[in-house]
Protein 1
Amino acid sequence: MPRVYLDNAATTKIFPEALDAMMNAYSEFGNPSSVHREGQSARKALEEARDSIASCLNCDSTELYFTSSGTESDNWAIRCAGKNGKHIITSSIEHPAVLRACEEMEKDGCRVTYLPVDNAGRVAVSDLENAFAQDTSLVSIMMANNEIGTIQNIAELARSTHANGALFHTDSVQAVGSIPVDFRALDVDLLSFSAHKFHGPKGVGGLVVRKGVDLTSFIVGGSQEFRHRAGTENVPGIIGMAKALELATESMEQASSRIRDLSDLLRNEIKKVCPQVLFHGNESYTHPGIVNLYVPGMEGEKTLLLLDVKGFACSGGAACSSKDSIVSHVLTAIGASTEEAKNSLRISIGADNTEEEIISFVSAFSSILRESLSGRK
Ligand code: PLP
């Protein structure tokens, strides 16, 4: 039986059209900073890609900077926008790309407030309002959580931040390409995204910086990216990213409703075979494809390995931390016990998945669970 990929929050399969666009771009070798014809042809392709991505995100092309990843974009926003003051506010369920960058700021003498979340993973605006200090420079709150899928009310959090005189950054890596992201309507100052989460290539992302925000460079060297991010641009990667985002944006409404139906099917079928299942988060404001669950007595890592042997790829939590972190900080923050935070399973559904795959996953999952739970008696 062909393998079933249910780990789309870790990464997605590249769209064939994006791969084609990249392959064509690889045969052009000009450096976009060169003045000759080869260079100018690469420059033209790069700027077309910038225009296309800017139009999908509803920002100005001059506000869009290309980076090597979502991680770099997050680091840039935190390290450079954060240093205008002595205090940063973030949430306790951010991705390590934000949390580790905040820790570095703490080493440099900055105070960081880690806001709590409710049991569905939401930040309360009142908690944010209470956290501001005279010297708060930056608030960074993710749009969609990578482990439990919780979607925050970013526009409201940004409004409160501006009323308190600080800048607002949102890590939108799990949101862009999956749910509508309108930079202008959200009225945020900084927004990070990454191509491999929306069927684009790995190793390329971007940071949108609102016009008028004076962000210093994080990577220094040449004068690329309007003198703000040094390093020769990854032209094929950027072209692949633009193609992927165009396609993801075009098909978003249809794809997300299909994906949400598959997530509902998964929840309902699992409830039938395993009524004691616990789903983390709240379905009414969750990323359409992220389902995070726990069954009392389930051993997370063992279940994952057995699912892999049976042909199903899913995850025990954040893919980036699957090797070094056993207890999920996100699940702990929503009030899960250590047992739950160690043993939960994340299934993340994508546009390619089918009902048959979900049904066969539930059948494999329930047989693994039955065997392991009876073996433990
Ligand atoms: N932020 C979130 C919410 C993510 O899920 C990820 C990747 O999993 C990142 C940041 C890092 O993005 P990248 O893999 O492009 O470095």
Note: The chain has 14 helices and twelve strands.
Protein 2
Amino acid sequence: MAKITVHPLTKNPTKAWQKLQVKQSISKVTPLDPDTPVQIDKVRFVCISDTHARVERLQDFIPEGDVLLHAGDITNVGLPFEIEKFNEFLGKLPHKHKIVIAGNHDLTFDDDMVKTKRHDLEMRFNIRKEKFEDYLNERGIASVKSLLTNCTYLEDSMAEVYGIRIYGAPWQPEFCDWGFNLPRGQACLDKWNKIPEDVDILITHGPPIGHGDKCFDGSHVGCVELLSTIQQRIFPKYHVFGHVHEGYGVTTDGVTTYINASTCTLQYKPRNPPIIFDIPLPEGVSKTC
Ligand code: MN
Ligand code: MN
């Protein structure tokens, strides 16, 4: 197994990218037209992300397909009613499989935030501890994750659909002390080291360095160790993420296709179309069984 080491410039991702990009080949990819018919021998994936509770008018905007992927930030601050609204929205979509991860805005999905950083939740986001606990108790649930009944929720875990292996992780380098934040470097790498090597599609909330990670001010904020892990150990066919809304779009390094599927724009308007891709059905697998 390739051993990934922390890049010396990892804490300064813009500078790290200046060095790294010299040896990187990156090209833009034109995504499939969303009207492309779904084929019987291919699995159609439909990618969205960063919907931030703005789902009212999204339903008609989402093309058909077999598997819907959502790369996190389903809410603004993780309030239960935002999660319920999202779950209802998922329930109305026709895709047979729906796979969702959380993002830094989905604060109440972060167990550490709920257990040990309650003060942050209460003071900064006005989620009252008692109210939140009452809410969970009334429903007999230990976590808001149980509210997502219309999808498979991944958190450092794997799902397999049609023989295609999908791994999801919500972590990103820290950003204003939100959910699922980790210091850049080893702490992030420790999470990426949990990803098995036979993953076809990797879903993370944040981008890797250099792909869909450029902010409006020109800085790069992706995770250096995430790119190293992808390019030196995992080699997934697809990496789906969001988080940097203005980084929406598709790129490739020749091995992995990188999809920033942020549905919301920088101004939090849910206007970016879902991005679709097809993977041929593995031999011996059919969509009907
Ligand atoms: Mn977001
Ligand atoms: Mn985010």
Note: The chain is about 20% helix and 20% strand.
